[in-house]
């Protein structure tokens, strides 16, 4: 027997609406002990995700490693945290440019930069 998602999913789903305030969403996530939730429109169709879980990088992290992580998760911007404080942000565009421009980058890193170029820009919203 094949186990399907419907066999293990939690119902009803914890969701936020696109009209909820940030305070309402944070309260919902804390009350439901959920780290994230889909944001839905009036019909219940997903329009995004909101999360209390933050992925961050450190100033001394390797550019290629961070670029690969961002590419694989389709993330385009991350906070840079040093000693528990946000000290900046880094975008996939910046990392791709650094990998392309660095003469010390090996061919793997240049291929990563080329592959990431298509995912480096955030989606535009109408």
Structure, briefly:
With 126 residues, the chain is α+β, with helices and mostly antiparallel strands. The chain has helices at residues 5-8, 22-31, 63-73, 92-101, 107-116, and strands spanning 16-17, 36-40, 46-51, 77-82, 85-91.
Overall 3D form: extended
Radius of gyration: 18 Å
Order of helices and strands: HEHEEHEEHH
Helical residue percent band: 25-40%
- For the biggest β-sheet, the strand order reads 1-2-3
Protein structure class: alpha+beta
Number of helices: 5
Main sheet record: 3 strands, mixed
Count of the separate structural domains: 2
Structure summary, number of beta strands: 5
Beta percentage is 15-25%
Distance between the termini: 44 Å
Taking pLDDT < 50 over at least 5 consecutive residues as the criterion, the unreliable ranges are: 119-126
Arithmetic mean of pLDDT: 82
Describe this structure in words.
Residues 119-126 have low confidence and may be disordered. 36% of the residues lie in helices and 21% in strands. α3 packs across α4 (92-101), α3 (63-73) runs parallel beside α5 (107-116) and α4 (92-101) packs antiparallel against α5 (107-116). The chain is an alpha+beta fold. The chain has two domains: 5-51, CBS-domain, CATH 3.10.580.10; 63-119, no CATH class.
């Amino acid at each position: 027997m094949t186990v399907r998602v419907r066999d293990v999913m939690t119902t009803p789903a914890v969701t936020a609406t696109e009209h909820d305030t940030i305070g309402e969403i944070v309260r919902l996530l804390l009350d439901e002990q959920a780290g994230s939730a889909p944001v839905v429109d009036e019909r219940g169709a997903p329009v995004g995700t909101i999360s209390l879980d933050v992925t961050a990088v450190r100033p001394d992290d390797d550019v290629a490693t961070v670029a690969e992580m961002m590419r694989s998760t389709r993330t385009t911007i991350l906070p840079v945290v040093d000693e528990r404080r946000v000290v900046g942000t880094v975008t996939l565009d910046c990392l791709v440019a650094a990998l392309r421009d660095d003469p010390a980058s090996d061919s793997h890193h240049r291929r990563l930069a080329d592959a990431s170029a298509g995912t480096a820009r955030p989606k535009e919203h109408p």
